[in-house]
């Protein structure tokens, strides 16, 4: 809506200003050249009266277009405007933007028609001598072109042409960024008078928001979050401090962070939303109920289940006081049951779920979710038979919903597969994950989930000994997850680690060492060097070098494993013993390789105590080893 107001503001002074028509001078008949039958001179100027009439018609058409409100009136007024305006008139370009924005917002036209209007506007604006791409561009020229690019990007997004949308929107952002109030170059480039009376921040916000949508659809979640954060910063500068819309913006960003499992970033944002809504709307408002429900999800992700349950119960209480019923309240009750399961209160959870099941239709999606949560409670109670029966019922319901809600069904299949894992039904779990992946690949906005599902399939195939099948899934998962979450996300590290294990199983230790090294590098950054999973990645790297016969490198990384487990203290006593044993084993192999005929004499005494320091390995020995051919 703000963007449409911006278009109207730009359009108004342009449409109302008539084109100045100079009054032609009467030529002196004595100075005229001899008359020729085929004259190469231009036609005589239009008489002033005819020009004035044309200008009046154009002005009337402009005013009618500006005053039009509904779709039908706008289309009729635009047709009249087209008939009286030159095709390269900048005012026609602005009218294309206004009409395109209206058609997009109202859903009254196919996105291809909106795209055609945007491209037509772009063609006119870019061909104008003082277009935004030139050094003499005005503030309004740049904003006009930015809005046309935004409209083209938005229409391309609706047509699932995501790369085209990204190109249009990136260009648009490049134009509006220097014009923002915080930019010191804005005033210098365009002057204060030109910027007066027009705020470019709503345009920048619309561009950023659509960029976030496009990047999410492309699976580039981390970049999308950066754009959403920029949207919030713009809203904070635009909206008054107590605005309800600002509270919703905090919650939207918190929800986005929760989607990528970054609950630490999500928590303070959701708390800000709650604080703002409580101060402006009261403690019992529906907005506060929404905030508390999301807080419950965030606390669950942080494994603070007591706080999660408390927020969930408060949310339900507010919704019930307002008479909010239906799916939203039922989802909140299912969330509460899942939290109780995490707290070990499985019987209470089952009671809640049975109550919910009585309130829903037989083949509804919510009933499927009820049976999934019921299966989770039963699996935690080690009731495998009952768990499988609940999962079968859930799958029967979900299968009927595949066409209606493919994204939700695909996500539910992933959760069902994890429960089949709990009861050791690995083939069934793999089958459901493959089915989910096939559905996700047909949903452009779900690319961020594809990598997770492919990684899960690869891990289960590896676990069940189907290593050759696992490798392509894991290789695919690495690339997808890097695109979606960035190369240093901890999830990417785990996939590298599993891929390294698969390469070891099929006799490719060099490839395995590369994967383990990448896994360790990612986990050092995302989890820290002393995290247990980072240490395990280092152990895997030492094992790979050991298998290759690169004993010097194997000992180096095995020593790091020993030192890391020692830093964990008494809680890692068993892990430390095993790490020392492996270190001694590698050292024996290294010494045997250096002097095989005297290996029995050269064996060192094994380490008996965990607090004993590892011996220093002389650099000369390492150098000799590196010069020897690998086995």
From TrEMBL:
What is the top-level taxon of the source organism? Eukaryota
Q: Which UniProt key words apply to this protein?
A: TPR repeat
Recorded hits in PROSITE patterns, A to Z, give: TPR
Question: Which InterPro entries does this entry report, sorted A to Z?
Answer: TPR-like_helical_dom_sf, TPR_rpt
The membrane-spanning stretches of this chain are none
Q: Where are the TPR repeats?
A: 247-280, 410-443
Q: Which SMART domains match?
A: TPR
- One of the Pfam families matching this protein, by short name: TPR_12
Using the record for this protein, list the coiled-coil segments as residue ranges, or answer none. Answer: none
Protein name per UniProt: MalT-like TPR region domain-containing protein
